[in-house]
Amino acid sequence: MKEPFHPKIVSFLCKWCTYSGADLAGTSRMQYPPSILPIRVMCSSRVNPVFVIKSYLSGSDGVLIGGCHPGDCHYQSGNYHTRRRIAILKKVFDSIGLETERVRLSWISASEGSKFARISEEFTGKIESMGENPTKKKVFL
Amino acid sequence: MRLKIGVYVCECGPNIAERVDIDRVIKVISSLEEFEDIELVVKRYKLLCSNDGQAFLKNEIESNALTHLVVAACSPRDHESTFMNVCKKTNLNPYLFNMVNIREHCAWVIPDKAKATEKAIRSIRAGIRRTLHQSELLERELDANPDVLIVGGGIAGMEAALMLADEKRKVCLIEKTERLGGKSIFYSQLLSRQGNSAKMIQQKIEAVQQNAHIQVFTETELESVVGFFGNFEIVLKVGKETELQTGLKAGAIVIATGFRLLNPNKLPQTVYQKEDEVYTTLEVESMILNEGKISLKSGKSPQSIALVHCVGRDEKGYCSTICCSTIIKIARMLKAKLPQISIRVYYRDLCLPHKTDQQTYEEVKAEGVDFIRVKEAGIQNTSIEYTQIDGVKKKESADMVILAPAMEPADGTEALAELLNVSLGETGFFQEAHHHLNPVATSIEGIYIVGAAQGPKGISESVAQAQAVSGKILNRLIPGEKIVPEVKVCKVLEDFCTGCQTCLEVCCYGAISFNEVKGVSVVNEAVCRGCGNCVASCPSGAMRAIHFTTPQLYREMIEAIR
């Protein structure tokens, strides 16, 4: 029998908002799938699109980037830069035939523990329905 | 030297112990093949953040001569600094320590113990991998100047100056006009029931002038500011002859430049000439203050007065928050002075945020002031043209019209923002670091904003902000104490820098400059906050975010998905 698919989702979380939101999901004892693998960064703008590509080509089934809501960035405008970079990255993904739905950028504030849990759930569900990352261990960068 | 990493798993009482199989975590981590040339010490402890736990950790670091430390416990937001302080008591550099969150991100959110354990193992493995790429960082200490420069001598600036001077801080208070007090000296009353406020303001001005710790410069503006928190060097432009005063130093700068009222003549819906009986709220207040009465230019008393709210609100795009209570206050003063006349107030929405506002409004209405709700209102000389809520257009005239124009940033706000390198928000006022959590700080450490310079507000809020800023400064800049600048900053690897200057564009702190001679970017580490935006933007990989370097994050990520 085929083993059930448990996706792995690398999640770059901004220290000020989304990471704190994830903490709140924990302290509020919410539940979300174990697929989310958090990497703490100072700001979502630290996430070089190359990280996303690298983690995707290294076998991550999805990549989540979490930052502060527009206008709420701890560093004023970092998340606006993130938004542009991820938008361009998705175009790049699209143009070389990769599935753009595997990359998700979400604004989750420190008080939105339930939103973090909901998005983790939703995104995991989406990735589960899409199946394993097709490039896994086939493409190198 | 052989690396020796200590991995300590905290039980956090039952919090982690009951939800994660710690014995399995220890077994798996101890026998990981990929770390075979590294010695791992893996142990569990009941509560690492307790005093006993910290003593245990300190002893472990020393007795095992650990080269790196990983603690798998709660969120780093809770106890990262606790464990870094433990490292500081030993020979282990605190930046060779890494914290893995297996409580909020594993134990508390994954009900299935086996799955929680699996994720905990994955996270700890990634944490160990990251730690291997971390390097020692040294915190530097810098002397800090505890003196303060305050720009703007209105109520907010004066209040901050007095608070700081109370603690014997040397304050330099500069004011663009020839006198202190700002707009507050035009107010005849602060609230509808508080007697003569001019006297209160005058007493404050005198207190500032007589205070030995406060040096007041009137008719003075900022010429230049260089430096950073704790060490600003300031040049002033003093007097009408604009003589330059150099050599001034301060540790912090407070922006208290206040506001101005929008000029209603600029709006197409308010058309009037100078000789018309049309006044702004501030003009009427100073008329009452100086002449003690309300009169027309002919000297006669008006028989009817119209007050119009929200002049310029649509154009500015924000509510100035104090105009409603100001109009109600003025209406009450007019009614007291001229009880027989007709007073009509044309409003669109009422904004009554303070606890006594609603009551005052009810009372003024009961005293016979008419409040007319309109969709929009404009004036043509002293006649009011308005649209009722039901859409019917009407026209009424009055002997005198009082307009409540929007508050807008003071003259010179843009130039000052550029000089200090702090940002302005969409409304043109100075932008606070965080609307909710850090409302008096700016993006630049050591530069603060108070009063109406930050956004429309009245005297009580301006005073509260001034007191808040004083608290912040007294708390952060202590005479004789050194400051420790952030070590997690960004650095340029000059050999890789191609001089494209993309990083200069994305840095919102102005921390990066360009060295024309070498053709490379240079980071001012005292100003950098280490967000890492420049690192992600650099096309040639020349930027490095210390403690969040690309190898650190990359290795952590690869290990997490392996």
Care to give the gist of this entry?
The complex is a heterodimer of chains A (141) and B (562). With 141 residues, chain A is an alpha/beta fold. In chain A, 39% of the residues lie in helices and 16% in strands.
What does this structure look like?
The complex is a heterodimer of chains A (141) and B (562). Helices cover 39% and strands 16% of the residues of chain A. Chain A is an alpha/beta fold and 141 residues long. The mean pLDDT of chain B is 93. Chain B has 4 domains: 4-137, Rossmann fold (3-Layer(aba) Sandwich), CATH 3.40.50; 148-258 and 410-476, FAD/NAD(P)-binding domain (3-Layer(bba) Sandwich); 263-408, FAD/NAD(P)-binding domain (3-Layer(bba) Sandwich), CATH 3.50.50.60; 490-546, Alpha-Beta Plaits. In chain B, helix 2 (22-30) packs parallel to helix 6 (113-132), helix 6 (113-132) packs antiparallel against helix 17 and helix 7 runs parallel beside helix 14 (459-476). In chain B, helix 4 (76-88) links the parallel strand 3 (68-73) and strand 4 (97-101). Chain B has 17 helices and 26 strands.
